[in-house]
Amino acid sequence: MLPLRDDIPSRTFPAATITIILLNVVVFFYELMLGSQLEYVLLDWAVVPLRYTDPDISRQFNIVEQARPFLSSMFLHGGWLHLIGNMWILWIFGDNVEDRLGHGRFIGLYLVSGFAAGLLHIFTNPHSGVPTIGASGAVAGVMGAYFRFFPHARVQTVIPPFFFGPFFVLPAVLFLGWWFLLQFFNGTMTLMAREGEFAGVAWWAHVGGFLVGMFLVLFARRKAPPRLRVQTGY
Question: Per residue in 201-220, pLDDT tens?
Fold first, then answer.
């Protein structure tokens, strides 16, 4: 199911959400300009589990070089659909989470969720030499925060490829809960599958990002909605 919109209006301008989206788009256009050099850039800027789990490989990098891919990989994407899908989900859910947390804490949530997603991907795929890129883990953290903040919101969805209907309106807790269970189920299948099966999607990165997003907002002070001023005429 593809979310189209929710019914929670944002009270503030989502500056951080828009900035993150623009950064991802700019970086993607930079990727397109690299041409044949992109493969070498990905090996350096993407999260490659073997780079951290193989002692012979990991000793070739210093601490900064090992930490950098956790940030840079969040802004790299493997194609137009990968980019648009992540940015669309971020746009649907990010403005409300940013509205609740504020700009700075929203950025912190996004980055910490993405970092944690990368760590869990390495832990669950220690022998993988495939570069892992994408904002999915960080976006999943935003979804986890939305799940906790707005469980009773209504999300209008459609089932691809039928983009013109029929449309379904679901409670956010149902839509996001189903999404999470799907990631968890597929992630579990990868642990039981032979190497190479289920390749191409970092399921556990999605799971990790979502759970970290839910956890972090426990410590975030929620902004109270503005009080309505009531004027009585009699």
Answer: 889 999 999 999 999 998 87
Residue 14 pLDDT greater than 70, yes or no: yes
- Spatial distance between the Cα atoms of 49 and 32, rounded to a whole number of angstroms: 25
**Ramachandran quadrant class, 79 (left: phi over 0; alpha: psi -120 to 50; beta: rest):** left
CATH superfamily of 2-219: Rhomboid-like (1.20.1540.10)
- What is d(CA 16, CA 132) in angstroms, rounded to the nearest whole number? 24
H helices present in the chain, as ranges: 15-34, 38-45, 50-53, 55-58, 63-72, 80-101, 103-124, 136-149, 172-192, 203-216
| Local confidence band at 198 (pLDDT 50, 70, 90 cut-offs) | very low
Domain residues of the chain, as ranges? 2-219
pTM recorded for the entire structure = 0.89
**Phi, psi torsion values for 48, nearest 5 degrees:** -115, 110
